[in-house]
Amino acid sequence: MITVEGLQKNFGGFYAVDGASLSIDEGSITGLIGPNGAGKTTLFNVIAGVLQPSDGKVTMKGEDITGLPPHELFHKGLLRTFQIAHEFESMSCRENLMMVPGAQSGETLWNTWFGRKRIANEERALRAKADEVLEFLTVEHLANHKAGQISGGQKKLLELGRTMMVDAKIVFLDEVGAGVNRTLLNTIGDAILRLNRERNYTFVVIEHDMDFIGRICDPVICMAEGKVLAEGTLDEIKANEQVIEAYLGTGLKNKTKEEVQA
């Protein structure tokens, strides 16, 4: 679904992404792991149009999308969430979801004067859709709560809910588990799995929690120093000596397997 070829992003003389190449299969939940500074978030930002690449190519279903801005990728079904949730704090959770779809009739001055019935009908449909999303995520009790007053984990669920308000095809999730308690993280994982199985969402997930990655992701891609280091199942990644060295240092090559796993 997504193919990345020789992607580079440099800041002055520093290459945050240095010739990365990878493929994301449609219908998969792909985990992206690596030590801090490996280039994971920068890779996301380049693919999602937040940053322009220095070199390389990104295609989506064979179409060249390299460097397209986020709003164009949004309309193609490519969405991206952030490590720190972005919500309209003073609006309710329901209203946050209702804001997502573009080209709403109420956005034009003409329709506010002469298209009130159309606006009302759209708002009823959006409200029903938002309530359906909140129920799917098991947070319908938060519908009228101000988004700025809910917990960090609930904000992550709300961000996931935003992707359900439009025709999302592939969603890039950046550290969905950061600052989230285990119960809510399990709820988020359940929602991702259901969206994948029931609605054929494709996901790419940056996450440091290996239990979470192991539960929902296959395959797993490991990055280090801006490059793709290894790809495979989580067990294969864990057994890869290059991956172990990237995470824990080259001295581990002289340690026993039991010492590494301790």
Compose a concise summary of this entry.
With 262 residues, the protein is of the alpha/beta class. It is 40% helix and 22% strand. A hairpin with a 2-residue loop joins strand 4 (55-60) and strand 5 (63-64).
Walkthrough of the structure:
One of its GO terms (molecular function) is ATP binding. Residues 2-250 form the ABC transporter domain. With 262 residues, the chain is of the alpha/beta class. 40% of the residues lie in helices and 22% in strands. The strands form two sheets. It has a six-stranded mixed sheet with strand order 6-7-8-3-9-10, with helices on both faces. Strands 2-1-4-5 form a four-stranded antiparallel sheet, covered by helices on one side. Helix 6 runs parallel beside helix 7 (182-199). It is globular and about 60 Å long.
Q: Supply the helix-strand structural class.
A: alpha/beta
C-alpha end-to-end distance: 38 Å
Share in helix: 25-40%
Overall mean pLDDT: 88
The number of distinct β-strands equals: 10
Main beta sheet: 6 strands, mixed
Q: Strands of the largest sheet, in order across it?
A: 6-7-8-3-9-10
CA radius of gyration: 20 Å
pLDDT < 50 runs, ≥5 residues:
251-262
What's the overall geometry? globular
Percentage of residues in DSSP E strands: 15-25%
Topology as a string of helices (H) and strands (E): EEEHEEHEHHHHEHEHEEHHH
Tally of separate helices:
11
